[in-house]
Amino acid sequence: MSRFLLALVLAALCRAQNTPALERVLNFEAGPTGDAPTGWGLNNASVSLDNDVVHGGKWAVRIERSPGAGGDFGGISKMIPVDFAGHAIEMRGFLRCQDVTEHMGMWLRLDGEGNSPLGFDSIQRLLVKGTTEWKEYAIKVPASNEGRRLYFGVFVAGSGKVWADDLQLLVDGKPVWEAPKMELPKTVIDSDHEFDGGSRISVSSLSELQIDNLAMLGKVWGFVKYHHPLITSGQRHWDYELFRIVPAILAVPDRAAANAAINKWAAGVGEIAPCTRCARLEQESLQLRPELAWIDDKARLGDNLAATLRKIYANRPVAGTQFYLTKTPGVGNPSFQHELPYAGMRFPDSGFQMLALFRYWNIIEYWFPNRDIIGENWDDVLKQTLPKIVLAKDRDTYQLEMMALIARIHDSHANLWSSLALRPPVGACQLPVNLRFVENQAVVTGYSAEAMENTSGLKVGDVIADLDGVPVAKLVQTWTPYYAASNEPTRLRDIARSMTRGECGAAKLRVFRGTQEVTLQSDRVPLGSLKFSSSHDRPGETYQRLSSEVAYIKMSSIKNVDIPRYIDSAAGTKGLIIDIRNYPSDFVVFTLGQLLVTEKTEFVRFTSGDLANPGAFHWGPPLALNPQKPHYAGKVVILVDEVSQSNAEYTTMAFRSATGATVIGSTTAGADGNVSQIPLPGGLSTMISGIGVFYPDKRPTQRVGIVPDIEVKPTIAGILAGRDELLEAAIAEILKK
User: Fold this and answer.
1) What is the number of H-type helices and E-type strands within the chain?
2) 323 and 338 in contact (C-beta within 8 Å)?
3) CATH number of the domain at 3-178, please?
4) pLDDT value at position 4?
5) For the chain, what is the radius of gyration of the CA atoms?
6) Which tops the pLDDT comparison, 159 or 229?
7) Which CATH superfamily is domain 543-735 in?
């Protein structure tokens, strides 16, 4: 494993953080966030804070990897922006280890623009392994005026335990926060301030002609943004260039005049030198082709605009660099940089609201790996949503219209996460019950607050028919446009979680309790007093021996370090039930998956975007599980349902690749792949699934989800009887002859 690859992959999995108390993050005295050390990213290891084995202060970090853990290494990582000057950057820290099979250490990497590596160092060369006591280590890279981000971390390769404590980041021997500040190079975003106070575009109505012309402007604006060399190199403030052309497009009398105005604007961006090494679209690995036939549609664009767009496309940068995004190293999902959130914009502002639509629409058009399975004509969506978003009269209406737009890509990762408080139903209180759609009906499955079983008036198994006089079916129909979900079971899952929210006080309900219809009142209580469960697994310990023949493991509380012990304990059973009706608490794809296979077994492959060919996505090679010991030789049965999402689905894909494995349950959430965050005007934030996730034979998982081998769904009768019908089916599958 090369030292460069080590840093590349670990850096890809950490997030930029600007922690004021960086010293306390480095010495781990900031304490835990959940079970993890505050301020650090985690990768392929079980990581926790230790207050027994420390070098100084109260806490040290402990990193553990068991034999057969996923990947070659794991650890903790962090990134800080390079806003300081100096000659040398040094990382120092105290490490100790126990039973490390390969090596452990610290690493430090300085990156420039576009994540280009400028310097790297690691103690990997010392090959520290086995068991050692506390010792201070140091690594160093030259500082550079070209540096933009500093990545660093602690890792262990192979298996074993590593402790780290009292880390330091020094610039010329002084703590990094005491180093002279360096003014980062300015971009055009820093120098063009014409519209900082507002777009100066005010629209009270839109004609069909204006909608059609603005929609075409939005498409051209996005095409030029990602193809024109002067924009991809960051020489124009492209958001503000939109505001400069919109008034002319609103004023034109017909389509031909709009085309002429757009052409004059696009051609006026700057002269394009003919390419000497021209970009090409690689065909061999191509999974999804850019949808660019429209740039040659002379009947719609006119000869001149079509020629301008074709010239831009033919001379797009071969290097594949983009000012407004990079690809996350080692993963490949887009990282949208230089996309300003304009958090201080004043509403209404038709220009900034239009910008939000155009930015999002074009990100989906060029960088969403699942664009081809949205299920709607994306051009039509642009025209349909344009007047709703541009004409929104206040902040709340704008957010709801953006929420409805985002829901139309049908990606469970893609909610308007910054604005969920506005998603209907709204209110500060909620009934203290857990609901789930079972047999297409809203069923009470439990209680979300202690001591509410006898005071809420609702019983497990009750079917809610009306809420405050409105049929549940009508509520679902009304709210559905605001719920981003890859498929219908996931949408109903999310609606059920918030369905009884509203104003504090009594809610009137009509319910069916068996064959009896009951009308009752139940008090909504403050949300802060409620505890909702997002898992459907079996209560109790992570590992359970259900009988002499059946073992059970649930992923919601799994830890990598415990897996070999669980598999040893399950030895000799006929079958192992792996419950993934939850979200895994640790990344166990390889740690556990490699104990289930007897030979190298491919289980997944990815697609990622092409910076030189926006809108194109290419296949990557399959990933595989390699057999490790202790091997589990019995049957493997995996339980899934609508709460199994993202990492849960990825984990299921790995485990089901074991010979004879059976998946029981119902369709999962259908949203997998590393997510990419998208800032939007008004300080809003959304995400997309940033890479495509497929089976090795190229069958899709997005929207489809994990399709079970044996479909089993809970029933109302089963809930009334307190049964876990999926678990029962799994036991029966293991014990059948």
Assistant:
1) 19, 34
2) yes
3) 2.60.120.260
4) 33
5) 28
6) 229
7) 2-enoyl-CoA Hydratase; Chain A, domain 1 (3.90.226.10)
